[in-house]
Amino acid sequence: MKFFHFALIIISLGMAACSSNQEDKDASFRKTLNNNWIEIKRCNLKGGLFSTYGERYKADWLMFIDENGYATVKTPKDYYRNIFVRPDSIMKWDKYKYRIIKIKTDTLVLEYIPNRGDSINKPHHLMFVSEKTFKKTDKETLAGLLTLTKNDTLFLKKLSDSCKRSPNYFFSAEKQPIARSLDGFTKIDTAVSDDGRMEFKITEYNADVKNQHLYSGKFIVRENGQIGSFDVGLMAWGGEEILPATYKYIKHFVENKIKFEPGTTLGARINTYVYFTFTRTPDLP
């Protein structure tokens, strides 16, 4: 019986020691994470870009992790706060999931984990260095890290070739297409839609209408600067009808009042799908 009590005491002490060791590890982990991190390199595990869209391969994230293990991530388009870094190194927000696979005093590497059924995003690594290290690193070294690898280049070329064979292939160019007005009564603003595609906001001033009319659609800017697969009627406001004459007018206007420069990837022209809105107004510019 005494032996049994003695064994229980030994087990209890062992469990307390394990618990203390785990707490020490967690505290050390949080202390190492606590820093301002700057992304300097992004790469696909199998070579190439991290997305079949191909529009983002540049290292452009900023991340701060506080002493309690909560991260703030700033991307070019979004700002995410209060992301808890779990003890198992997992970070999750919205539909995104990352795992910390390397952490040192001045280096941190995240691995993106695609959701089941995600055919767009590929597993990829994001390498960060501390802000202090970043400031001490010379410009030539940073430029070298940002340079595309041979695998990146081959992957881009493959995507570019896919665009030439199949214009419907959803691919955002490395350099997006440009639209320029050919007269003083046409104004064009450029934006990026929620899914990352280019959007041209076209306004026809001094139009032969009594009230303002607004339409939307999409088309392909081809390699030669011409447009194809033209479609109007994704959205109509105020009960607008897309009559055959309306469709014909808008298509003729876009083809003849605007000059397009195609998107390029690695210097090669490619076909790029774009959205557009078309506003007709009797007002003067």
Automatic annotation (TrEMBL):
**Domain of life, per the record?**
Bacteria
Q: Which PROSITE patterns match?
A: PROKAR_LIPOPROTEIN (PS51257)
Q: What is this protein called?
A: Uncharacterized protein
